[in-house]
Write a structure and sequence with these properties.
The complex is a heterotrimer of chains A (about 170), B (about 240) and C (about 450).
Chain A lengths: L2 H4 L2 H20 L2 E3 L5 E3 L1 H12 L1 H18 L6 H21 L4 H26 L2 H5 L2 H26 L9
Antiparallel strand pairs in A: 1-2
Helix pairs in contact in A: 2-3, 2-4, 3-4, 3-5, 3-8, 4-5, 5-6, 6-8
Chain B lengths: L11 H4 L2 H17 L3 H40 L10 E5 L2 E5 H27 L2 H10 L4 H32 L7 H25 L17 H19 L2
Antiparallel strand pairs in B: 1-2
Chain C lengths: L1 E10 L4 E10 L5 E4 L6 H9 L1 H5 L2 E9 L2 E2 L5 H4 L3 E3 L4 H4 L5 H11 L4 H14 L15 H15 L3 E5 L7 H12 L3 E6 L12 E6 L2 E4 L20 E15 L2 E15 L3 E6 L5 H9 L6 E6 L2 E2 L2 H4 L3 E4 L12 H8 L3 H10 L13 H15 L3 E5 L7 H14 L2 E5 L3 H6 L3 E6 L2 E2 L1
Helix pairs in contact in C: 5-6, 5-7, 6-7, 11-12, 11-13, 12-13
The chains are: A mainly alpha (about 170), B mainly alpha (about 240), C alpha/beta (about 450).
Chain lengths: ~170, ~240, ~450
């Protein structure tokens, strides 16, 4: 890698743009049908993947802005600020955990717990305080728990699979 | 994706300056959330609904409402579970169903939620996203940030399309349409997206990008008319905020 | 005058793509380089603009001078004033959501005044007949329109040396002529292509062929060609289509447009080769998707050995080699991919040899052409009764295309090849189907 490349802000801009788009696409365009009817979005899978693979700064921006854009585009603009904070924080914490001890099972469980707490707890507190009230925010919690748990269960293996398939990816960490 | 939110009409709010609209949406939302009394909150909600009806029409406004309907119902249904330690209005035997306080708080939440939902939907229905980005540039977000957002907006439909192609391709290879094609499709999608990173960076620089700030090809004028709009977008929320 | 001397390029840990490549380009005397897919045309373009070494970890050596200016001493953004290239795949060439934004970006980098920029945008859009799309989303453009947008963007960069990398693909005949006319007005022009188009006659000052990493003067040779023998004998399976109809609506420029497809009759027998040809946008890929069951037909029937088959079943009957092979690959190594469909390691090894693949290579690091061979190898093992080759010739050489065809025919598959390559069309020995604006003839 040349010296000039390391200083290139073009690379950083592309990195952020693409990881943010990945998060947004996973949230909007990829839906998995659930046994109870309806769909589950893969947004947490993307957030966990990006933060585990690319680090805390990229994860924070991609996770926060990506989910916010997805909300704005889907007609749920009022959730955008909440999503930004919740998923941005989720990405940051996951990245820090993964970075410290990537392979230990205990840390993976810790990551799952952190994700669930941040997402389910974060949405509950923020939407409860500012949007729909705590009472109405409660029914959303189980769904968020499932979604964020899936995020870690699928997102971490995804990170491993992608890193195995495309070895050069580690050059893009930020 | 983009064309899904913008509604092509020519209303007063459509023509309202992008920057003023952004400020208005933000301040209005804050004033609404912070409002402690019944009448101000109600008026704000009504204002946002009226604005919606006059800007995008009845059909679209109804669609906006339908999207939040489920949550509105939740707010109403779960109202008994709030503030149980107060004066009761409706009870069944010794079981307090609704208290005055819980009724009040539910109604306030309703007003605020509906009001914010409409004002946000309005922003995206009367503004193209690239105009919103341009407004943000006016407020001095960095050149790099605005470039990144624009690129992201272009990548989202491109990657969505790629995903459906990849999913089809892998279903064909495996000969079936099942959940088991999901994970491989995700891997393939992500790798093809990540490979774009150095390609896009190359394109940026081949077209002259050095990281330095450049003036945009579009510009904003500043005239009396726009000044009035800006003033309005600050004064109206402020007035509501001060009305207690 | 532009002088390139002893240019060499290699990617990390691999052999040199080209070595000691030397070329002179004179003012107003365009140069053409022809080479088979995978021989390094795009790598050459990237080496000249500087992105091969900066972003793709390539080792580039040699010299590149414009008169006395050493272009290799300039960083990429500075070099763009002297050399710029068009992008082979127009879908990957677009950076911004709107057409206007896309063209304006290079103009912004040139620090033009606003009024100048606005005039230049109108001028360039008009030159490539895109003025009506000024406010459009880039996502809504067709393949040909995206190609023209990329050409307009190249003009907006306004370098001295214009490198056109497979720019004539996806352009209609009239646009090809127009593009050549526009090239006359440019100072230095280098065109890279994989086929010698008849429009090129009498246009280029010098024509070269890039082969095995070196430049040779181009000689038009008639390709020695033997069309593979179909497996004669019992035709084991047939796929018959009758009265197939399909329509698809899509939003373009805020109007709804429908694309209608009709196939009165079509028959594919296993062990035989067929060609489906037609212009870009005629509906060849759509028909392929209908046959394989990705898309649901509106009316008509598709039968397999006389019995109707639904979409689900059809997916298991046809090996569809997607145009972009990477869409169908997702496992880390070649051996992982082959073992996922093969029952024995011996078979995997044998097939890898047959398709010139190395088992330990990493899938995502394969070149486009090798990935195509891997894709073909996977389907070869799956051995379905029919196969569709979608524009295979754009990824691998003519000779490799024919050997793939032979391998599949010998195995007993019925092959439907989709192509718009004149060489293949004119020398094809099997039945040819023509697709004209959604209708099969």
């Amino acid at each position: 890698m040349s010296e000039e490349r390391k200083k290139s802000s073009a690379l950083r801009i592309s990195l952020i743009a693409i990881t943010t788009a990945i998060v947004a696409v996973f949230t909007i365009a990829i839906r998995v049908p659930t046994p109870v009817g309806g769909y589950v979005s893969l947004c947490d899978v993307a957030v966990v993947f990006v933060s585990a693979t690319f680090g805390p700064v990229t994860g924070f921006i991609a996770g926060g802005v990506g989910t916010a854009i997805a909300d704005l585009a889907g007609g749920f603009g009022q959730w955008a600020p909440v999503s930004f904070v919740v998923h941005g924080l989720e990405a940051l914490l996951i990245a820090l955990i993964v970075r410290s001890k990537p392979d230990s099972l205990v840390y993976k469980l810790l990551a799952a717990a952190v994700a669930i707490l941040t997402v389910a707890g974060g949405y509950f507190l923020l939407t409860g305080a500012f949007l729909i009230g705590f009472a109405a925010a409660l029914p959303e919690v189980p769904a968020n728990v499932v979604q964020s748990a899936c995020g870690v269960i699928v997102g971490l293996p995804l990170s491993i699979a992608v890193r195995k398939a495309y070895r050069r990816i580690d050059e893009l960490k930020w | 994706m983009r064309s899904g939110t913008y509604i092509y009409k020519d209303s007063f709010y459509h023509r309202f300056d992008d920057r003023a609209k952004l400020i208005f949406t933000l301040l209005f939302s804050i004033a609404l959330i912070a409002s402690p009394s019944f009448y101000p909150a109600l008026s704000m909600m009504l204002l946002s609904i009226l604005l919606s009806l006059f800007s995008v029409g009845f059909k679209e406004s109804l669609l906006n409402f339908k999207r939040i309907l489920l949550l509105v119902i939740f707010i109403i249904i779960f109202s008994p579970f709030q503030k149980r330690d107060a004066e009761s209005i409706i009870s069944i035997g010794s079981f307090m169903l609704i208290s005055r306080d819980s009724l009040f708080s539910s109604v306030m939440i309703l007003f605020k939620f509906v009001g914010i939902s409409f004002i946000f939907s309005l922003l995206l229905e009367t503004e193209r996203i690239e105009d919103i980005v341009r407004a943000l540039r006016y407020f001095h977000i960095s050149y790099s940030a605005s470039l990144t957002i624009s690129m992201t907006l272009s990548l989202i439909p491109a990657l969505s399309y790629r995903y459906s192609e990849i999913r089809e391709a892998i279903e064909l290879r495996k000969g079936k349409t099942e959940l088991s094609t999901l994970f491989p499709s995700l891997v393939s999608l992500i790798v093809s997206a990540v490979k774009l990173i150095p390609e896009n960076a190359s394109l940026l620089e081949e077209r002259g990008f050095t990281g330095e700030e450049r003036p945009s090809y579009r510009s904003y004028g500043m005239n009396g008319f726009i000044f009035t709009q800006m003033l309005l977008s600050v004064i109206i929320p402020l007035a509501f905020f001060l009305w207690r | 005058m532009i002088e390139i001397c002893n240019l060499e390029l290699s990617y990390e840990g691999e052999e040199k793509i080209f070595s000691s490549l030397s070329l002179k380009i004179e003012k107003n005397k365009p140069v053409l380089i022809i080479s088979e897919p995978g021989c390094g045309k795009t790598s050459l373009a990237k080496a000249l603009t500087g992105t091969a070494s900066k972003f793709h970890s390539a080792k580039v050596s040699g010299s590149f001078f414009l008169d006395s200016l050493d272009l290799f001493s300039l960083d990429v953004p500075e070099r763009k004033n002297y050399v710029a290239r068009s992008i082979q795949n127009p879908d990957e060439a677009i950076l911004f959501p709107t057409v206007e934004n896309e063209i304006a970006f290079p103009l912004e980098q040139r620090c033009l005044k606003r009024e100048e920029m606005r005039k230049e945008i109108s001028l360039l859009l008009d030159r490539y007949d895109l003025l009506k799309y000024r406010d459009a989303d880039t996502a809504e453009l067709s393949g040909g329109e995206k190609r023209r947008l990329n050409l307009a963007t190249l003009d907006a960069i306004s370098p001295k040396l214009f490198i056109y990398d497979e720019a004539f693909d996806e352009l209609s005949a009239s646009w090809r002529k127009r593009l050549l006319e526009l090239m006359r007005e440019k100072e230095y022009v280098l065109v890279l292509g994989s086929h010698y188009l008849f429009e090129y006659e009498n246009f280029f000052e010098s024509t070269y062929e890039l082969c095995d990493g070196s430049l040779f003067p181009y000689e038009k040779k008639s390709v020695p060609f033997v069309f593979p023998e179909s497996k004669v004998g019992l035709c084991e399976h047939t796929l018959e289509i009758s009265n197939l109809t399909f329509s698809q609506s899509h939003r373009a420029m805020r109007e709804k447009k429908t694309f209608d497809l009709t196939v009165p009759t079509m028959r594919i027998e296993s062990g035989r080769a067929y060609l489906l040809e037609g212009e870009n946008g005629a509906g060849k890929s759509t028909l392929a998707r209908l046959i394989t069951g990705i898309l649901e037909k509106r009316g008509g029937s598709i039968t397999y050995d006389g019995k109707a088959v639904d979409e689900k079943r059809r997916k298991t009957l046809v090996s569809y080699l997607f145009q972009n092979p990477f869409n169908q690959l997702y496992l880390p190594r070649v051996q992982d991919e082959l073992m996922s469909v093969s029952s024995s390691p011996e078979e995997a090894e044998r097939v890898a040899d047959l398709f010139s693949l190395s088992l330990t290579d990493y899938t995502e690091e394969l070149s486009y052409g090798k990935a195509k061979m891997l894709q073909a190898a996977i389907y070869y093992i799956l051995n379905r009764p029919f196969a569709i080759f979608d524009e295979v010739d754009s990824a691998i050489s003519y000779r490799d295309t024919m050997s793939l065809l032979t391998l599949y025919l010998e195995r007993g598959s019925g092959v439907l090849m989709i192509s718009h390559d004149e060489r293949i069309i004119s020398s094809f020995g099997g039945r040819i189907y023509h697709m004209r604006e959604g209708r099969l003839e």
